[in-house]
Amino acid sequence: MPNSNTVAGITSQGTLRNQWPVQTVATITETIFTVGTDSGTTQFFLTPPLISTVVGAQPAFSVAGNPAITGRSGREYGLPNGNPNEGFTTAVLDPGRIFYVRFVGTGNAGANAGQTLVVSLYQGTSTTLGSDKKIGSTGAAYAAVAGGPFNFYVEAALLWDSTSQILSGSYEANIAFGTGAQYTTKTVIPNVVTAVTDAKLSFLGTIALGNAASSTIQLSEFVIDQN
Fold this sequence. Notes:
The chain is mostly beta strands. The protein has one domain (14-52, 90-226). It is built from no helices and 14 strands. A hairpin with a 2-residue loop joins strand 11 and strand 12. 36% of the residues are buried.
């Protein structure tokens, strides 16, 4: 759940701009998670605020926060009203500080004898996944033959600095369907990424089905937390 260290991302569900809609997937082609826009949906890329970013008013990260309250009073630690941490930019990551990228969601798998599920986290800026780097996933294709509800998360602990421009770290993940679950313990990310400028600190999530039986995905959050 977003907390006082959450600095960027989307946590609202719905059909409006910057909300997570229910996404229908009916293909075996690995599919990027989409977010609502003013006129439909678009593939989502999560980026931290850059030094040059101009940030105005933003909705609260916390679903329990009241967006009408702008004061910082309250009994909770940190940002008690669920406000964004506007003091954060990529400069905070230099020289080399850990940050976390996490997405969480639920879905409903279409029933088929060949149905499986894999959700993955990538670093990159391209809608062509072959141009991006996979840095975490729920692991082997998880069987969902009978169809029905599932949930999942992937979280990566990452290290980056502007001098080496290397992105490295570890990730863990879980996916559950029916009465079973598949947990990926903390694992070194499979692709150490080089030549990463601050503008290339961009992340996207995907789902890959084993069969094109129509399935749905509903993200609840896709966020960046500072250490």
